From TrEMBL:
Domain Beta-ketoacyl-[acyl-carrier-protein] synthase III C-terminal span(s) in chain numbering: 253-352
Taxonomic classification: Bacteria, Pseudomonadati, Bacteroidota, Flavobacteriia, Flavobacteriales
Keyword Acyltransferase found: yes
Protein name, UniProt field: 3-oxoacyl-ACP synthase
Domain Beta-ketoacyl-[acyl-carrier-protein] synthase III N-terminal stretches: 129-201
Protein keywords: Acyltransferase, Transferase
Length: 352
């Protein structure tokens, strides 16, 4: 028995933030000193590295669980199932519900429970819980759904990835331009044909790597040091990703028995365009090859890095035919992969 994604949906916020909207920001170094060059230079360098031109922020009245609810409605409709038949709702996020204009995280009750409530599901045997696994959270949720279904504990699972990172960023940190908001949701069911999940890989590196992403104070020394924001050691993450993600993808693909030439698409966490391109090249180099054209769809240019939402959103856009020069056909083999806080790495090979 295998599992497959029978329904997919995403919610892309309507509030568009362009790079030029950061013109008036006061960006500071970690020690609180100003940069020695204008914001125009900062923004141009940022775009050259990340590929991000625009990003989406959640509408002021919505939180992560709201975005997740909207995406879940679409996934359930796409799967053509009765939501009362869901056995699990697995919600991957990192910061809970953060209301606009605040910095406090709210995770009581769990966001999965909130989505179940919004969906109007009455069945108490539909178990709802959250997972914290960094950006790879949605993929890890799919792997948990796989375990539940294969063990006989479930027949249908709703796996969600949603985040509003725009509400936990330090406006004085240039890395704040990377982050965005969004949600992706998927219905997972058993597959009795050739389609579905073929193999997977998952790992946590928690020695020197554990603190590469962390919660830290603002770079502005005048702000309350006890108010924390998402921070990262970008260079260390870049080097870690280039080392560990291709290796995980290769291990996963080798276990599937699929030849690399038969892989049609690679859906990788939309973190940084240059990093993702380097990961793909490093992955193919492990097989003595170079990546074929159009192997890796991207949505980071217009949507930014929405953490756990990036991979399911990318898949939804691919399925809907909304990614230029990219399509997917029945029987195509796809690799899903991600890397993020923890530091966590995971991947799975999937036949569409």
């Amino acid at each position: 028995m295998k599992i497959k994604i029978t329904g997919i949906g995403s919610y892309i916020p309507h509030k568009e933030i362009k790079n030029t909207d950061f013109d008036k920001h006061v960006f500071l170094n970690e020690d609180g000193t100003p940069f020695g060059y204008p914001n125009e230079v900062v923004i141009n360098k940022f775009k050259g590295i990340t590929g991000i031109e625009n990003r989406r922020y959640a509408e002021d009245q919505y939180t992560s669980s709201d975005l997740a609810f909207f995406a879940s409605q679409k996934a359930i409709e796409n799967a053509k199932i009765d939501p009362e038949t869901l056995d699990y709702i697995i919600f991957a996020h990192n910061f809970g519900d953060v209301k606009y204009g605040t910095t406090q995280s709210d995770i009581l009750p769990s966001l999965a429970t909130r989505v179940k409530n919004k969906l109007g599901i009455k069945n108490p045997k539909c178990v709802a819980y959250d997972i914290l696994f960094g950006c790879p959270g949605w993929i890890e949720g799919v792997l948990q759904a796989n375990a539940f279904i294969k063990s006989g504990m479930a027949k249908k699972c709703l796996v969600i990835g949603a985040e509003t990172l725009s509400r936990v960023v330090d406006d004085h940190d240039r890395d704040s331009m990377i982050y965005s908001d969004g949600a992706g949701a998927s219905v997972i069911e058993a597959s009795d044909d050739e389609t579905g999940l073929l193999s997977y890989e998952s790992a946590t590196f928690a020695s020197e790597e554990a603190g590469y992403l962390y919660f830290g104070k603002s770079y502005n020394p005048d702000l309350d040091p006890d108010t924390k924001y998402i921070k990262m050691y970008g260079r260390k993450i870049y080097e870690f990703a280039l080392s560990q993600v291709p290796a995980a993808m290769k291990s996963c693909l080798d276990k599937s028995g699929i030849a690399i030439d038969d892989v049609k698409k690679i859906l990788i966490h939309q973190a940084n365009e240059k990093m993702d391109e380097a990961i793909i090249h490093r992955f193919y180099k492990l097989y003595g090859k170079t990546p074929p054209e159009n192997i890796m769809p991207m949505c980071i240019h217009d949507l930014g890095n929405s953490s756990v939402a990036t991979v399911p959103t990318l898949y939804d856009l691919l399925i809907q035919g909304k990614l230029e020069n990219h399509e997917i056909n029945k029987g195509d083999v796809v690799i899903f992969a991600s890397v993020g806080a923890g530091m966590n790495v995971n991947a799975f090979v999937y036949r569409y």
